[in-house]
Each structure stands twice: as structure tokens, then as C-alpha cells.
């Protein structure tokens, strides 16, 4: 009897010629693009600062160059650099969380908001704005401006925990149930948010509207340093799960046979995605499409290997959100366009193009 040779299954490859290429230059190109985007973004505004001047100011801060224009130095170090750094952190966090969620659900159209993280944060923030509860008043007295961020982050964490608990079946979390629970919680949170908005005063409505549209206008070094540990944990932690996500693409049963702890993998991805999205929404409000579109575009160029997709998504998200913020600050100057509107306007056509391209290649 002829012996059969058992072969390890190969990872699924996305359809389309472009998607199957490795593109080893991609990460280096993204890093170069990120540096260029930062240099251009910090120089855009009512007072223009050239890339040469930006480098000179940074060099002067390190004691490497002579003194330069004090006004431009203050503008760069106090206003623009914190804002650009905040955009880098939020863009990287949202995009890498989106890439991980797409890998978890094995669906390129998934995003972090799918399990209700964003809607939970929004509900908590709107509740704090509208409801004059003693606890909220005490938090505002203690933390001031940052009380709203803390409450929004707590809402995101609470929603993610609820969805995860609802998805537990026979001691393990089921992805399909998690998806359905996320849809239900999203609908409930949206309805409650709408009810609170209906009862809000005119002043509260303005606050809710500006917060819901998203903005990096409240950036400061304190905000950046507060957000930094959350995003760094996510950006450094999720790529470590890339190998497990590659195996999960074969299916849960095959991944288990290959030694993947499915329950632990799901728990870590949910926790890290919640940290990224919850902290980002708490600081900057609702910013859509970054976690949905960027990972998909990276996957089209780099292939389906999560070792490249996760790192590329973090870099790509940082580039896109930083560039979008620079455009939002200048397109209607001296006013400022909420960045959530801009990402939706730019992201929707790209998303529709991806759907059409996916349909024509299958």
C-alpha cells in the first residue's frame, strides 16, 4: 500500500495578483512616508514653518543648533508637535486594532466598532454631558477636562466586557455570537445615545456634536503622555499575536490542532483593541474609517501575513490621520473642520472602491 505524505496546510492567500506579492520594501516606504508627513504637518498652519526650520528648532531644543525665531519655536513645540504626536498615536492605535479585529473575525470588512467599543464610549460620554449625576459632578471637580475622557474610556471597556460575556458559550467565546452581541449592543447604545441627545439642552447639544465629530484640537503634552502607554501596549502587543492570527485564518479547529490557544487569543485581541479604541475615542471623540480602510489597503499591497499587516497598519494609520488632521486645519482656515467628517469623506469612496474591486476579483 502506497504511503501518503501529509503536508502542512498553507496559509490562505487573498485573491488578486497585487495582494499576493510580499512587497519587502513596504515597511521602509511607510517609515519614510511617516517622517515626511510629520515634517510637513507640523509646518502647516497660519504661521508656515518649513521642514528646514522644523529640524533647526528641534536641533536647538537638543542644543545642537543656534537660537532661532522664538515665535515659531513656541508654535511648534507647544501647539503643533503635541497635536501631531496625538494624531500619530490615535491613527496607529485605531488601524492596528482594526487589523487585529479583521483577523479575529476573518473578515476584511470588520472594524473595532463592530463589537460596540466606540458606541459604548459615546454613550458614556453623552451620559456624562447630559445627566447631572453627583458622581459625574465629583469627577469633573477632581479631573476637570479629563473627566469626560475617563468616563468615555470606562464606557468602552464596559461595553467590550459585556459583549465578551454574552459571547461565552459552554465556557468559550464564539466569534459568531460575539458579532451578533456586538450588533445588538451597538443598536442599544445608539438608541440610548439618541434618547439622551433628545433631552439635551442647546449648550449640551453643541458639546455632544463637537465631541461626536472628532477632533485633535484639545491636544497637549499631558494628553499625549496620558495616551502614550495605552497605545504603546497595543502597538507592541498585537504584532506578537501575528503568528496565531495567521493560523486562525485556517479556521478555529485547524488553529487548535496547530497549538493556538483560541480563547486566550480572542481575549487578548479584545482587551488590546478596547485599550486602543477606548482611549482614542476618550481623547479625540469619534473618528471613523481608519480602523476599517487602512488594514484593508495594507493587505492589498502586502498580502495576508499579519506580521506585515499589523505593523504596516500601525504606520499607515499614523500617516493617514496625521495628514488628515493637517488638511482639516487648513482646508477651511481660519476655521477647523472636524477630523471625523474628513476621515468619513475620504474613507467612504475608498471603502466603496474596495467593495467594487472585491466583487470584480471574485
UniProtKB/TrEMBL annotation:
Keyword NADP: no
Compartments, record wording: Cell membrane
Gene3D superfamilies on file: ABC transporter involved in vitamin B12 uptake, BtuC (1.10.3470.10)
InterPro entries, alphabetized: ABC_BtuC-like (IPR037294), ABC_transptr_permease_BtuC (IPR000522)
Keywords assigned: Cell membrane, Membrane, Transmembrane, Transmembrane helix, Transport
Protein family: Belongs to the binding-protein-dependent transport system permease family. FecCD subfamily.
PANTHER family, per database record: ABC TRANSPORTER PERMEASE PROTEIN MJ0876-RELATED, FERRIC ENTEROBACTIN TRANSPORT SYSTEM PERMEASE PROTEIN
Entry protein name: Iron complex transport system permease protein
